[in-house]
Amino acid sequence: MNKAALEGQFAVVTGGSSGIGAACARLLAAEGSRVVVGFNRGEDRAQSLVRELPGSGHLALHIPLEDSAQHASVASKIGEITKSVNILVNSAGFTQRIPHADFETLTPERFNSFLVANAGGPYSITRALLPLLRSSGRGLVVNVSSVSAFTGAGSNLAYCAAKAALDTMCISMARACGPAIRFLSVSPASVDTGFVEGRSRSEIEKKAAQTPLGRVVTPEDVAHAVLACATHLKTATGTRIVIDGGHTL
User: Fold this and answer.
1) Residue 182 forms beta bridges with which residues?
2) What are the CA-CA distances from residue 175 to residues 40, 60, 76, 238 (Å)?
3) Which of 10, 39, 159, 183 is catalytic?
4) Does residue 248 lie in a domain region?
5) Is residue 201 part of a domain?
6) Each residue of 78-104: b (16+ CB within 10 Å) or e?
């Protein structure tokens, strides 16, 4: 029997209770990694997922995006059960549909909340886990970003700005933390999840039909890109992997 690609490794997946995060948790566990399933409000989903994952030693932890003190606490808890973290997947995020010309609705306060959720939160979580990632000697941080980061088209202006910040942070942290830790972004367009409230399956299918590949991108597609970052793209760091079915061509 072939050895699992991630046997003996330890992964943390934020936003792991549903959607892309849950798909990542399932695939990383299937490849032999122990997985921390991070959640915010989806504790029941996270606990249920942990029970379903193959292998042993998985756990669910509360990892809200806005609470840096909680991020330090999470790092401390993880440090009690493992000496190192091999993989961090920053999958948690938040958005809301606001037309780009609707400046009345996108107040400065709301703008900043999107920045915290989609850029500041991932930075804080990553920062808290840096010592454990370094101690692995081959740490990897994968940020689930979006083509909105470089197209400027997305659910709202602030979301686009936050994802651009996330991608730039990926470049800067790759330079600052190498060679012990690699940083990569995976960048889908529309994914078949409930992430964007009010977006229907038919809308996703219509957009997908207009792309060169002509098919909907699934959470599992994104998870396989994350896995490839860990198993095959060993010399890649500080860059983005676009997995949008050709949406941006």
Assistant:
1) 140
2) 30, 31, 26, 7
3) 159
4) no
5) yes
6) beeebebbbbbbbbbbbbbebeeeeee
Q: Evaluate whether residue 109 is within a structural domain.
A: yes
Residue with tokens 């549903």: 18
Element housing 219 (H / E): helix 219-231
Dump pLDDT digits (tens) for 98-134.
999 999 999 999 999 999 999 999 999 999 999 999 9
Token pair 């597609």 is found at: 221
SS3 content of the chain, % helix, strand, coil (to 5): 45, 15, 40
User: Which domain covers residue 115, as residue numbers?
Assistant: 10-242
Q: Which residue, chain included where needed, has tokens 């500041």?
A: 120
Three-point CA angle 203, 226, 152, nearest 5°? 45
Tally of domains within the chain: 1
* Known catalytic membership, residue 159: yes
- Answer yes or no: is 118 within a domain: yes
- Interhelix angle 108-115/157-177, rounded to 10 degrees, is 40
What CATH code is carried by the domain that includes residue 208? 3.40.50.720
Is residue 36 within 8 A of residue 15, CB to CB? The reply is no
Please, which pLDDT band fits residue 1 given cuts at 50, 70 and 90?
Answer: very low
Look up residue 194 and give its two tokens.
């409930």
